[in-house]
Amino acid sequence: MRGRRVGSVERAGKFIDDVGFALLFPAPRPLGPSLWEAVAGEDAEPFADGMGENEQKVWGWKDELPRRGLAWYGAFIGGRGTLLSPTLLAALYPGDGELDDHERLELSPAAHELAAALALEPMSSASLRVLLGDKNKYQRAIGELQKNLLVTTAGVEEQGNGWPATLLTLTCEQFDVGGRADHREAAEQYLDTMLDATPAELARAFRWPTAKARDLLNELGPSMS
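Above: the chain's sequence. Below: its structure in token form.
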């Protein structure tokens, strides 16, 4: 985290491209770098004085970065808000890059329903909640889609009152993904950023079986860690 702090969405995109992945805000344990630390500094505490200038930047960029195709955003690493570079996203994406990728994954009926709706057009989070008719059901379904990298944000939609609603779209509509999964490349990026990792840490980060993570780390060898 050396050099001048990130002060624009363009530089935020370059930061994500460099590290490969970053949490939106820092986590209690070191799951990875965070955009907040790149913007505000490693010692700054987010929301210590409410929604300040840096908090507004980071919160707004989680929607703007995907809209510009600079980084994928969703709940992924540790179930937390995560940004992935387009390169790492392509290496992790589980489908063929088609609108019906969700049909080949084991998802809940609600998750399939949301994905099918988003295949028609981007929709706001508010509209998707109405579609399912239950806030908790929506949260579980969208969480499923995000942890499988099928859905990302794509800007915001202004509401009549209150905060703008997040606009959601299928990942394959926003990024060049599909048929290029390379988990060895993804593991290499993880080690390049984290410098060292146990099989359990790598497995937890990318939602892989621990045995698979161990095999990949063994392939890469001690020179990478």
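The mean pLDDT is 91.
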